[in-house]
Amino acid sequence: MEALKEIANIAGKGGLFRIVKPSRAGVIVEALDEKKEKSMIGPTARVSVLKDISIYTDNEEQSKPLGDVFLAIYEKYADELPITPKSASNDELADFIAEVVPEYDRDRVHMSDVKKMLSWYIILRKYLPEAFETKAEETPEASAPEAETPSNAIEAPEEKA
C-alpha cells in the first residue's frame, strides 16, 4: 500500500495523520478525520510512518508489513469487521488476527497492538478508501512498469511543492 508512506501515527496523539510537508521546525501534518486540521509536529515527537510498521510472524521473514495485513483484512472483511477495537476481548482479538495473519507470533504480538491496528484500519477505510482500491487494481500488474508510472508521476509534484 503505497499510501501508507505518507500516513503516520504520532505518539501521544490519537488517530492518524497525513504527512503534508517537512519544514525546518519539524513536519506539517493533517489529521485524518472530519476536521482535517493541520498542525506542526516538532522534531522531538515520535512519528511512526505506517509503511515502516510490521507485525511479528513465526515464518522465515519474521514480520509482515502493516500494509499487507490491512490488505488481508480488506480482502476478507472489507467494511464488515466482525469485531470492534474498543469492545473486543483479548480472545476475540487473538481469533481475529489469527484469521487474517495465521502465522503471527503469539508471543510478541500484543492484543493492544492488534486493537490499535484495527482502529487504524477503520480510520483508513473511512478517510482514505482509495488506498485499498488502488492496490487491489494494481495487484495483477505489479510487475508491469506501467503500474509504477502513475505513482511516480504523482510523487514528483508533491516533492517540489
Describe what you observe in this structure.
- The chain has 161 residues and is of the alpha+beta class.
- It has five helices and seven strands.
- Strands 4-3-2-1-5 form a five-stranded antiparallel β-sheet, with no helix packed on it. A two-stranded antiparallel sheet has the order 6-7.
- Helix 2 (90-100) crosses helix 3.
- The chain starts with 6 loop residues before the first strand and ends with a helix.
Kindly summarize this structure in a few lines.
With 161 residues, the protein is of the alpha+beta class. Helices cover 40% and strands 19% of the residues.
Structural class: alpha+beta
Q: Sheet bearing the most strands, described?
A: 5 strands, antiparallel
User: Distance N terminus to C terminus?
Assistant: 23 Å
Count of individual beta strands? 7
Shape: globular
State the helical fraction. Answer: 40-55%
Instruction: Please tell me how large the radius of gyration is.
Output: 17 Å
Q: Which whole number gives the mean pLDDT?
A: 84
**SS strand fraction:** 15-25%
Give the strand order, joined by hyphens, for the main sheet: 4-3-2-1-5
Sequence-ordered SSE layout with sheet pairings:
Elements: E1 7-10, E2 17-23, E3 26-31, E4 38-41, E5 47-49, E6 54-56, E7 63-65, H1 66-77, H2 90-100, H3 111-127, H4 130-138, H5 145-160
Antiparallel strand pairs: 1-2, 1-5, 2-3, 3-4, 6-7
Helix pairs in contact: 2-3
